[in-house]
Amino acid sequence: MNFYFEAASVLDKLNAKQGSIKGIIGTVPERNRKRTAALVVETLKYRPVLAEVLDAAKLLRQEKKITSQNLALVLVHDLLLANGIQAGDGPVKQAILRHKTRLNSELQRIKIRRGARSTKELARAADVRAERIPRYVRVNTTCWSTEEAVKTFISRGYQLSGPFEEKYAAACASRLNISGFAKDEHICDLLLFPPDTQLSDDSLYREGKIILQDKASCFPSYILAPPTQDRAVVIDATAAPGNKTSHLCALMNNQGKASPIRFCLFAFERDRKRFGTLKTMLSRARCQNIEAVNADFMTTSPNDGRFASVTHILLDPSCSGSGIVNRLDYLLESGLHSYPQWSCTPPCTLTNLIEAENPEENEERLQKLASFQLLMIRHAMKFPSVQRVVYSTCSVHAAENEHVVREALRTQECKAGKFRLAPRSMVLPTWQRRGLPEEMDTPDDAESLVRCLPGEDATNGFFVSLFVRESPVPEGDHQNTVTKRKFQDETAQKDNDRRQGERRKRKKGTTNGEHAT
Ligand SMILES: C[S@@+](CC[C@H](N)C(=O)[O-])C[C@H]1O[C@@H](n2cnc3c(N)ncnc32)[C@H](O)[C@@H]1O
Q1: Is 394 noted as a catalytic residue in this protein?
Q2: Would the annotation count 184 as a binding residue?
Q3: Is the ipTM of this complex over 0.95?
Q4: Is the dihedral of CA 413, 415, 417, 423 positive or negative?
Q5: Structurally, what CATH architecture does the domain formed by 2-122 represent?
Q6: Which residues pair with 362 in a beta bridge?
Q7: I want to staple 268 with a disulfide (CB 3.0 to 4.6 A). Which of 29, 297, 376, 421 is the partner?
Q8: Is 3.30.70.1170 the CATH number for 128-212?
C-alpha cells in the first residue's frame, strides 16, 4: 500500500506546484521510482475522468479511511483502468473495493455520455508539438565517435534513414518508422530517433556515451565554437545541469590544460543543489578539462588573473522557459484538451504564441528576467580578452530575446568593448528561422539571430545570439571550429577533385599511349 501513498504524495506536491512532474518523481527513492512514475503519469492522463467518477460515487464522503482525493485517484485508477489494486488486503483496499460496482458504473456512464468507444478515448489529448519532437541523442565524442555510435545502434536493429525531414517527424509521431534513426543535418554528432524512444535507462546513457539533449539546446555551444588550442579559455557562466558544458568539452576534444591556467573551461553554477547535478553530469560525460565553480558568475572579477585570458563565454541564463514543450506538462492542465498556458491553438505561429500570453500576468516577471539577462551579458563583455559571447534562452518571448540583445548593443560595455552581432554566416547560416526584425533597432540584425519554434521546427522553443569583438584577432586564436571544419571539408573536396582530375588525365594519357609516372 506504501506505493499508493507515495504516488499520492507526488500528486499532492504537483497540486502544490512544488516542481515539475519529472523533478518531483526524481525525488522518489530509486527502488520505487519507475513504478511510481508510471502510476502518476497514467493517473494524470485520466485525472479529469477519475475525479468525476469519485465525485459521482461520493467515495470520499463515505470512506474515512481514504484520507485524500489523490490517494483515491491512484487507487481507483488501478481498480478501473489497470489490473486491480496491487496491495495486500488492508482497510484502505477494502474501503475502495466496497464501491467497485458503483465506481465502474459511473465510469461506463461517462463513456456513454462522451460517446467514447474505449476507455483510452477518455484520456487527455497530448500536446502534439511535443509528440513531434524527435528523441535527440548527442553522441558524446569525448568517449567514442559518432560512427561507432551509429554502428552500435544499427547492431541493435535500428535502421539509419536519410536526412531528417518533416515526413520523418510525422512518421515518428505515428510510430510508423519506430526502428529508424537519422543523423541531424545541422549538428554533427546529433542523432534523431522516434519521439517515444526510451533511452534514459540505457547503458549508453548511464555510461555517458550518449547525452539526451534537444537539438536547439545544442546550438549555443556549436555556435560559440570554442577552439581546441591551449590558449583558449572558455566560461560557461550558467552551467547546470551541464549539457552545454559537456558539449563544449567535446567540441574542445576534452583538451586544453594550458599552463599556467590548468583548466580550459570554467563552469559556473550558483545553486548548490544544481551544482551537485552539474558535477555528476560532467563526471558521467568524462569531462577532464573543466573546473566547476559553485559561485555566482556576476561576482567574478573579469581582471582576476584566472579569467583575464578568457576568450569565449556561453551565457544560457535562467529564463521563463516558455519555449519548452514537454511530453508531460499537458498532464497538469485543467481542461481535457488544453495546452500550456502561454501556448496557443494550433497552428502555433510565433504571432499566435505571443498574442496568447496573458500580458499583465507575465509582464513584470519577464521584465525582471530580462534585466538580469542583460546584466549577465554586460558582465561577460567586461572580460578583457573575450572574443565571443553567446547568449541563449529557451524562451519564445521577444522581451527575453531580441529586446535583451537590442539593449545589450546599446550599452557602454558593448561600445567600449567594440562588440557587434556576428553575421548570419557565423550563426548557423542554414537554419531558416531567424530573429524578429520588428523587435530590433536595425531590422537586418534579426538575420544574425536564431529562433526555434515548437510545433514547427521539431525542437523546443529557443533563441541564440552571438556577440563578437570587432577588433581583428590573430588567425588561429579564435578561428572557430565550425569555420575550420567547413574549411577542412572544402579543402578535402578540392583535393578529391584534383585527384579525380589527375586520375582522369592519367587514364586518358594511358589510352593515348602515354605512360603514367
Ligand atoms: C537555463 S539553466 C542552464 C542550463 C545549462 N546551460 C544546460 O544546458 O544544461 C540556468 C542555470 O544558471 C544558473 N544561474 C543563474 N544565474 C547564475 C549566475 N549569476 N551565476 C551562476 N549560475 C547562475 C541557474 O541556477 C541555472 O542552473
Answers
A1: yes
A2: no
A3: yes
A4: positive
A5: Orthogonal Bundle (1.10)
A6: none
A7: 297
A8: yes
